[in-house]
Design goal:
CATH architecture of the largest domain: 3-Layer(aba) Sandwich
Keywords: NAD, NADP, Nucleotide-binding, Translocase
Strand content: 15-25%
Pfam family, one: AlaDh_PNT_C
Strand order of the largest sheet: 3-2-1-4-5-6-19-20
GO biological process, one term: NADPH regeneration
Radius of gyration: 22 Å
Structural class: alpha/beta
Catalytic activity: NAD(+) + NADPH + H(+)(in) = NADH + NADP(+) + H(+)(out)
CATH class of the largest domain: Alpha Beta
CATH topology of the largest domain: Rossmann fold
Domain Alanine dehydrogenase/pyridine nucleotide transhydrogenase N-terminal: 6-139
Helix content: 25-40%
């Protein structure tokens, strides 16, 4: 009998995703591992127990976690779950460690070796393990769908004999993976789209998707990006100028989608109550950062509210989970790609190389201790946070920018740009071309010949590849 991989049903009733798919179960079995899936684990993602069984998994119960060598989850295990795991078991999930030091310490006390998938370094070999991009890409898509559902008019322009229906105006704040996908989706639906971000590099990406870029383009703006492709925190003066420009623009919009996050800190307020009040009746704001305090003043986590002026604020939680069937398939592949690197092909046993860069970046606890430098002592208390874009800007994700200067599945230093000749803008498609991805460093530019326009798709081609 081989080592056991256990896939539980998520305890959180608001989490419909599952950490395995029939495809990844088949691949795990091919590696020589035995897979046990808790009964009903995949039902919310439209995966039946029979499908898992046909792929080679045994269908078990929550108690089977006690004999598992590896546990694959979506959410971090709670203390009650940890009591059922054996000491030394590897637990792989989205751990959300920032601000949850007590939960990380609990995993250490349980003796498990915990890996935070959102801390995956941004390097070529980690592209297939990038959970932040795979899930943020879907969040950006769903944000537009949710906004359109609450908006009581058509998005595209329609010209008929009875008259013309004007196109809806959509404004995306934060051009990360989710932001890029939101732009692309809204454009496909026929809306007029504008977007804003403090990083100058994303201006070309926005234009390549057919949207207009909005920002105060002064000297501070030109230097608003770190070497790793992340947004810097802007001065109060710049924030005031940007807020004034944004306020004027928001008043004319029909749908506003916000995606900005700052690791380890509450989400920045991008839309004030005054801005919300200035919007037209029937306008919709979709806050993708509501789980961390929200970008929109007045947003309520887990609710859609309608204000006195007729403006709606959408605050759905776990937006990727709203497209669970797709999200689970992608997430399962991310986890398999990572676990595969730790399985010895000869012995068919789990063999963790603690010197491997992927392991160093993602391992939170091991041997009864918190081992990640950002959470194991003084460094954890003083680690600096950097602005991010909801589930998009890798450095923005709470569990991201810290794994090794460039974190979250795939976050490294961006290639240096030459200064001889500017490269032409390359079309971007949310969630694909990593180099263009807001969560990824800018792609290298040739200094001799302008780069030919190449279509990009957000969250796929990691420009760092």
């Amino acid at each position: 009998m081989g080592q056991i991989v256990f896939v539980p049903k998520e305890v959180d009733s608001n989490e419909p995703r599952v950490a395995a798919s029939p495809d990844t179960v088949k691949r795990l079995v091919g590696l020589g591992l035995d897979v046990i899936v808790e009964a009903g684990a995949g039902l919310a993602s439209r995966i039946t127990d029979d499908e898992f069984a046909r792929a080679g998994a045994a269908i078990g119960s929550a108690g089977d976690a006690s004999k598992a060598d590896v546990v694959l989850k979506v959410r971090r295990p709670g203390e009650a779950e940890l009591k059922g795991y054996k000491s030394g078991a590897a637990v792989i999930a989205i751990m959300d460690p920032y601000g949850n030091e007590a939960a990380v310490a609990a995993m250490a006390r349980a003796g498990v070796t915990a890996f935070a998938m959102e801390l995956m370094p941004r390097i070529t070999r980690a592209q297939a393990m990038d959970v932040l991009s795979s899930q943020a890409n879907l969040a950006g898509y769903q944000a537009v769908i949710d906004g359109a559902a609450e908006y009581d008019r058509a998005l595209p322009m329609m010209m008929t004999a009875a008259g013309t229906v004007p196109a809806a105006k959509v404004f995306v704040m934060g051009v990360g993976v989710a932001g890029l996908q939101a732009i692309a989706t809204a454009r496909r639906m026929g809306a007029i789209v504008t977007a804003t971000d403090v990083r100058p590099a994303v201006k070309e990406q926005v234009a390549s998707l057919g949207a207009k870029f909005l920002a105060v383009e002064d000297e501070e703006f030109k230097a608003a990006e770190t070497a790793g492709g992340y947004a810097k925190e802007m001065s109060k003066e710049y924030q005031a100028k940007q807020a004034a420009l944004t306020a004027e623009h928001i008043a004319r919009q029909d749908i506003v989608i916000t995606t900005a996050l700052i690791p380890g800190r509450p989400a920045p307020k991008l839309v004030s109550a005054a801005m919300v009040q200035s919007m037209k009746p029937g306008s919709v704001l979709v806050d993708l950062a509501v789980e961390r305090g929200g970008n929109v003043e007045g947003a309520v986590p887990g609710a859609v509210i309608t204000l006195d002026n007729g403006v709606k604020i959408v605050g759905h939680l776990n937006v990727p989970g709203r497209v669970a069937a797709s999200a689970s398939l992608l997430y399962a592949r991310n986890l398999f790609a990572f676990l595969e690197t730790m399985v010895d092909k000869a012995t068919k046993q789990l063999s963790i190389n603690r010197d491997d860069e992927l392991v160093k970046a993602t391992m939170l606890t091991d041997g009864g201790k918190v081992v990640h430098p950002n959470f194991s002592g003084k460094e954890a208390a003083t680690a600096a946070s950097k602005p991010v874009v909801a589930g998009q800007n890798r450095g923005d994700d709470p569990a991201v920018k810290k794994a090794a200067k460039g974190t979250e599945p795939g976050l490294d230093v961006a290639p240096k740009k030459t200064a001889k000749k500017p490269a032409r803008a390359k079309p971007v498609t949310p969630g694909q071309n990593r180099g263009d991805d807001p969560m990824e460093p800018a792609a290298k530019k040739s200094a001799r010949k302008p780069a030919a326009k190449k279509p990009v798709v957000p969250g796929r081609n990691r420009g760092d590849a």
